Amino acid sequence: MTALGMALLVVGAVVAVAEAHYPAHGIVGGIGVAAMAVGAVLAISGLGAGLLAGLLAGGALAGAGIGVLMLTVKQGAVVRRQRVRTGAEGIVGHVGVVRNWAEMTGNVALDGALWRARRSVMQDEELRVGDQVVVERLTGLTLSVRRAEDWELP
Predict the structure, then answer these.
(1) CATH number for the domain running over 87-152
(2) Global pTM value
(3) Over 90: is that where the pLDDT of 73 sits?
């Protein structure tokens, strides 16, 4: 029984750590915590300490494991609800300045970088150098922009 209990403790710990690298919303971590609790009961009672001591140790281990697991799952959910700040999704809505423009295309300075840009389909008026524009979409490395309205300016 002691060897089986020790094996369950090790396997449970590995499975619980795997939750950190492969987020499964607490399912894999819960299985790991349960395996560690059962392993603690089997190992401690197998060493001759008695079933009650094993149950207390297993319950304490399960309680601590479930507490940590709930905390990490809660923090993961908070992070998933946050707004995207980088990449193609994060650049939409940013305000930039037109550096040069010719008819439908030009260059826009945005967040410290110079981007190729084209006028949005919905934009009717011509853009000029110095105009502030808002990014509506990113296609490849080309921005689709429109003139910024007063309420959008910083």
Answers:
(1) 2.40.50.140
(2) 0.54
(3) no
